[in-house]
C-alpha cells in the first residue's frame, strides 16, 4: 500500500476567494414574508463584507478537492502517539445527528429535554464506573480544558480549607505541554521533576519537592513514554502524605479500561479525552470533549451545571409526578463555576455514549487489551530497527529514538516524512521531550496485525534507504500534494489571511 | 463488537512474537490489588438495537423542529444548508487531527486559512485564529491576552452587564487563581457609558457585547478612543450573523473581537459543539492563543499552508505559553467557513436582514398587545426584550402546554431588575405563521394566566 496522492498533485487548489465571481451564491434564502422594517441608522451599518461569491457546484468541488489533500484515519494508518487515532464508528455519527438530539436548544426547559439529560446522566454514571470516581462533570470541551478544570478544582479545595499557601503543581518532565501551561493559567507555579532510568517519576526528586506548598501533582499514567508508573502507590503516598492532591491526565486512558480504575489507584481527579479513548472523531483538530471525574472529596467543587437524577416519589423532588424519574441541572455547592457556556460538547457526548453502549464492559476491556497487545507487538516487530526508549513492557504506546544507527544524519523528522511516501501517517514527532529524536507510536486497538506488519516493514525499508540514500529521506515526502514547507518563512513573514491575488 | 480486527489466530501469533502467554501478562505493572476490576455497565447492544434506543431517547425531547422556538440568548436556530453537513461528513476532514504534518494536511490547513480570512473580513480585524471551544471561552482567553499585553501589570477587568451572563461567569472561572478585580457588571442595568467610565490606569480591558445580551446594538463610536486613552484594550463580543449588516468592530478600533460562531453552519446541538471566534490586531498576534495557519511555499516554491507562530503554544512554550489550548473546534470552524462561503457577500447580508425584519415584525405585534411592552431603547437585530404581565416561567409553561411553542429566555434568571422580562429571538427559520401564533398565544396567556 503506497500513498497515492499522484492525481491530486497536479495543481494547487485555489483559495476560495480566487474562485469568486460577483453575483454568484451557493445557497438560497426564503422570501421575506413580513413587512420590511426601517433599518437602523446608517452609522451602525456596514457597506459591504468581503466574502467570496461562488456557485454551489464550485463550492462543493473546492471543499471535496481540499479534502483529498488530507490524510485521515479512514484513509490509512495514523499512529500518532498520545492522540489515540482509532476508528470512529459510523453509528456514532448517525446517533449525534438524530434530529431529536441535534435540534434542541440549551435553554429549553429541562422537562422538554429529558432525553438529552438522561443520556448525559447515564454517560456521567458510566464514566464514573469505568474510572472509579464519585462525580463527573461533562462540561469541559477538550483535554486541556479538563486540565484547567481539574487544577482549579484542586486549588478550590485547598482554598476552601484555608490552605492558601498551596500554590505549586508538580509536573514530571515527561508531561504534555498542556500540563505546565494549565498550571500557569490557573495562577499556580510549575515545579518540574525528572524521570528515572526506568521512565518512572524519580521518587527521590519527588520527595524533595513535597511539602506544605504543594497543591498537587499532575501525572499521566500510563505516562507519555507508554509506561505504567511502577511505583504508583509510593507516588500517591508522597503527594497525599504532604497534603497534596493527584491529578490524572487521562489522555492515555485507552490503556486502562477494565484494567484498572484511576479512582481506586489514588487519583483524586482526572479528565477523560472522549475524542481519544471513546472514539469520537478528532475533526481535523477538534471538537473533542474532556469530562472531569473526581473522588468524593472534590465532588462539591465540580464545574456545573451537572445532571442530577431525581426520583419523583422521594422528598425533595420538585416535580408534580407521583412516580418515575426525571433529570435536572444542578450547580454543585462549592463549584469552581462554569468553564464554558451551556453543558459541554453535547454532540460529542452523544457519540461517546453510543460507543460505550455498543461495547459494554467486556468490549471496553477488550479495547484496552488489544491496544496494549498491538503496541507491544509492533514494538517487537521494530526490534533491531529503531531503539525503543525503555526496555519494559509497554502499555498502549511506545517511544523510539528516530535514529538509525547506520545513518546518524537522518533525523526523526526525515523518517516521518518518508513514512508518508509509504502510505502511513507519521508518529508523533519530538515528544516527549525527554527522548531525543522521539517518535511516539500509538497503533490503537482497531488496527490489524497486517497493518502493523506493513508499518514495521516500512520502517525497516526506510532504514535501508537511510543508509544507502539519505538524500531520499531528507527530501521526503515525494508523493504528497506538496513537498516540505518553508515554516521559517511562514513564521517570519506571516500571511494569516488571504490578501488578494 | 469492540471494533477490533483480531482473530484468535492473530492474538496467538502476536502473543508468541512478544513472548508472553496471555494478554493479561502485559499488565504486570498494574498493582495486583487493583487489576482487572469489574465494570458494571449496561450490556452491549447491536447497532440496530442501539439506534432504536437512541432514537427513542431523542424523541423524549421536544425539539425545535416540532415545537417552534423563540429562544436565542447565545444559541441560535439558523438554517444550515445541506452542503455543510455533506462537507463536514467527509471522513478525510473529520477523521484527521491537528495538521502537524502539513504535507498531508493541506485540506484542513487551507480550509482553516480560508476560515481565518473570512473571519477577518467579517470582523474587520487583521488576524483570526482557528477557533476556541465557544464564545465564552474565547472571551476568557481574550481577557488573559489583555492581561499579558499589559505584562501582568494591570489587574482590573471591566465588563458590561450586558455581556452574556455565562461568558461573564466563565471569565471569572478562568481567572479565579490570578487575583483580578472584575467590575462593571455588579449593577445589571448599568449603561455602556457608565461601564466605560470605570476604565482606569489599572484596567487591562473593557468587554462589551454587540448586539448585547438583550439583543440591542451598542454604539461603539468613540469608545475605543476613550479606552485606549487609558492604555486598556477594547474587547468586543459579536454575533457573526449580525456582521452581515452591522459595522464591524474593527472599524470602531476594537483590539480583540470574539464571539460564538455557532450561528454559522452549526446546529443547536443542545449547546455544543460550537466554536469560539477570536480575532485581533497584527501587532498583538504573538500574544494571542490558539492555532494559526499561515501561507508559505514548499521546496518547489509552490504555495502551501502550515501551522505557524507556534512558539506561542503549549507544546513549545509549556508554562510560558499564551494558553493551554490544544484541541480546538476545527470541524465546527470548517462548517462555519463553508456556510460563510455559501452565503457569500450578498447572502450574509440578506440573511441578517431577514432576521431583522422578522424580529421587528414580531416585536411590533407583541408590543401592540395591551399587556406586553417591548423595551427598545436601542435598535436591535434579531432579539428583543418583552415585559410580560405574569412571570416568564408561567408564560412559557402555558405556551408549551397549550400551543406547543417554546417561548423566550427568562431574563429574571440573571437580572433582578428584569424579572418578568422575556428575551425573544426571531431568525429566518421562523415563518410568519409561527410569529402570529406566538402573538395570539401571548394574548391568551395574559387572559388565562393573568387573572
Ligand atoms: C498527554 C496529553 N495530555 C493532554 C492533552 C491535551 O488534550 P486536548 O488536545 O484534548 O486538549 C494531550 C493531547 O494531545 C495529550 O496527549
Short description:
The complex is a heterodimer of chains A (about 500) and B (about 450). With about 500 residues, chain A is of the alpha/beta class.
Descriptive terms for the model:
heterodimer, A: 501 residues, globular, B: 451 residues, alpha/beta, Aspartate Aminotransferase, domain 1, 2 domains, seven-stranded mixed β-sheet, four-stranded antiparallel β-sheet, binds pyridoxal-5'-phosphate
Summarize the structure in words.
The complex is a heterodimer of chains A (501) and B (451). Chain A has 501 residues and is an alpha/beta fold. Chain A has a domain at 1-69. Chain A contains 14 helices and 12 strands. Chain A has helices at 56-67, 90-96, 99-102, 114-131, 143-160, 178-185, 203-209, 232-241, 262-265, 346-381, 412-421, 449-468, 470-474, 487-492, and strands at 135-137, 168-172, 189-193, 214-220, 245-250, 269-272, 292-294, 306-311, 325-330, 398-401, 428-429, 438-441. In chain A, strands 1-7-6-5-4-2-3 form a 7-stranded mixed sheet, sandwiched between helices. In chain A, strands 10-12-11 form a 3-stranded antiparallel sheet, with helices on one face. In chain A, strand 5 (245-250), helix 9 and strand 6 form a beta-alpha-beta unit. With 451 residues, chain B is an alpha/beta fold. Chain B has a 7-stranded mixed sheet with strand order 1-7-6-5-4-2-3, with helices on both faces. Helices cover 36% and strands 13% of the residues of chain B. Chain B contains 13 helices and 13 strands. Chain B has helices spanning 8-18, 47-59, 82-88, 91-94, 106-123, 135-149, 165-174, 192-196, 223-229, 314-317, 330-367, 392-403, 432-448; strands at 127-128, 156-159, 181-183, 203-210, 233-238, 256-260, 276-280, 293-297, 303-307, 373-375, 383-387, 409-410, 421-425. In chain B, strand 8 (293-297) and strand 9 (303-307) form a beta hairpin. The longest helix of chain B is centred in the C-terminal third of the chain and has 38 residues, at 330-367. In chain B, helix 3 (82-88) runs antiparallel to helix 11, helix 5 (106-123) packs parallel to helix 11 (330-367) and helix 11 crosses helix 13. Chain B folds into 2 domains: 82-339, Type I PLP-dependent aspartate aminotransferase-like (Major domain) (Aspartate Aminotransferase, domain 2, 3-Layer(aba) Sandwich); 345-448, Aspartate Aminotransferase, domain 1.
